[in-house]
Design brief:
The protein has two domains: 214 residues, D-Maltodextrin-Binding Protein, domain 2; 206 residues, D-Maltodextrin-Binding Protein, domain 2. 48% of the residues lie in helices and 14% in strands. Helix 8 packs parallel to helix 10, helix 10 crosses helix 17 and helix 17 packs antiparallel against helix 18. The chain contains 18 helices and ten strands. The strands form two sheets. Strands 1, 2, 3, 6, 7, 8, 9 and 10 form an eight-stranded mixed sheet that branches. The chain is an alpha/beta fold and 431 residues long. The radius of gyration is 23 Å and the shape is globular.
């Protein structure tokens, strides 16, 4: 922790002592209650969590606060939030959550404390250093309700040796990607392309195709827009790439582990996927092609290169917490430039622009991946799925045309069915 950070945190601790003294001097039932020096934090099982736990003793020493950590698997975490937050519990101060999975629901249910004043009022911490898209995803109705801790973008994974052998340039457009995948498939050595195929898992990776084609899940008026020309073109292209140039007899239930396995076993030359998963492709213990993998920004469509740039996890404060000030102290520290830089060096991509712009911040990343990430962050979209409270229903609805396109089914009929189903989800949320 830097001297500046230490002074900032100690200043906060001094404020706690002052509040406690005031409470004692007032006497009687009207005495102010000092915030607890124990901050109760609920975190997901994640490498980020393991990293931050190692640094907690330093935080506790600097502040005099005690962190009480509850660590859960994702499903357990969701179950606990559903029960405790709905009951208005004050037993949770800080919560690690998924902005695009449960963020809208939590915000609508008023589970979040408003952090806007704290975030914007701390010049040293500097909220302006956070990338715009991830911060947009943790802002609801103009209120900052969470701070991004882990980000990801969709990038193009490719086989450098295969492209070199066949004289193919790294695709910069989706048309070039299609032509290159076709050429590789026809060469007979391997598939040209692979990606997620499962109805719900594929939605997030399909989203960058949709955005780059000039579309989105909803239009400017908030209506479903998965039957527009741009959406139809995106569904058609995604399906064609896998159906015509992907693995033979490809299944339509692949999530990222299965799609990644196809790529890392040397069975496909191109793969679009989240950059946060890159070590699965570059680790020799996991990948047969680790020394031949290259990375590039997501190829551009008619709408430009529009990959998602989203926070997969963030930290928020429980609105029912009686310890908001000290909860913010933890978030302030955990998302400080120093902590983000340390996390990023271990392979956890953060949301601070200054860290990505520093040589130290990108030192652990392949050079071409670091460039793809920084370039993508400048043009990225703040969501990779419909931004609704009923995320599961929405993904099921808009994901069905992906499967139908891969199978070569009636895409026109499929998108119209998806349009109606998704609009029903949107309508239900307005009631």
């Amino acid at each position: 922790m830097t001297n500046f950070s230490r002074r900032t945190l100690l200043a906060g601790t001094g404020a706690i002592a002052l509040v406690a003294a005031a409470g004692c001097s007032a006497g009687g039932g009207g005495a102010a209650q000092a915030p607890s020096t124990t901050v109760r934090i609920t975190l997901a099982n994640h490498v980020w969590t393991e990293n931050v736990k190692k640094a907690i003793p330093e935080f506790e020493k600097a502040t005099g606060l005690k962190l009480e950590i509850t660590q859960l698997a994702e499903d357990q975490l969701s179950d606990q939030y559903n029960v405790k937050l709905n009951a208005g519990t004050s037993e949770i101060d800080v919560m690690m959550y998924r902005p695009l999975q449960e963020g809208r629901l939590f915000a609508q249910n008023k589970y979040f404390a408003d952090l806007t004043e704290k975030a914007k009022g701390d010049a040293a911490w500097n909220v302006g250093d956070f990338q715009a898209s991830p911060m947009s995803a943790t802002t609801h109705n103009g209120q900052i309700v969470g701070i991004p801790i882990i980000t990801e973008r969709e990038v193009l994974y490719y086989r450098k040796d295969v492209l070199s052998k066949l004289g193919i340039e790294v695709p910069k457009t989706l048309d070039e990607l299609k032509a290159a995948a076709k050429k590789i498939k026809e060469a007979g050595e391997m598939s040209g392309f692979v990606a997620r195929t499962g109805k719900s898992p594929a939605v997030t990776q399909f989203s960058s195709f949709l955005f780059s084609m000039g579309g989105d899940f909803v239009d400017a008026a908030g209506k479903a827009s998965v039957n527009t020309d741009a959406a139809k073109q995106a569904y058609a292209l995604y399906g064609e790439l896998i159906r015509e140039y992907g693995p033979a007899n490809v299944s339509t239930d692949m999530s990222w582990p299965e799609a990644m396995a196809v790529f890392t076993q040397g069975q496909a030359a191109f793969y679009t996927e989240a950059d946060s998963l890159y070590k699965n492709a570059t680790d020799p213990a996991k990948s047969k092609v680790s020394d031949t993998v290259g990375f590039a920004q997501f190829p551009a469509g008619p709408g430009g290169s529009k990959p998602y740039n989203i926070p997969s996890w963030a930290l928020g404060v429980n609105a029912a917490s009686t310890n908001v000030e000290n909860a913010w102290k933890f978030i302030q520290w955990a998302t400080s430039k120093e902590q983000v830089a340390a996390q990023q060096k271990s392979g956890i991509p953060g949301a601070r622009s200054s860290v990505w712009e520093s040589a130290d911040g990108i030192s652990s990343y392949p050079t071409d991946l670091a460039k793809a990430i920084t370039d993508s962050a400048k043009v990225g979209v703040d969501h990779d799925r419909p931004v609704v409270a009923q995320v599961v229903k929405a993904r099921e609805a808009v994901g069905q045309p992906i499967v139908d396109s891969i199978k070569g089914g009636d895409l026109s009929a499929s998108v119209e069915t998806a349009q109606k189903a998704f609009q029903a989800v949107l309508d239900a949320e307005k009631k």
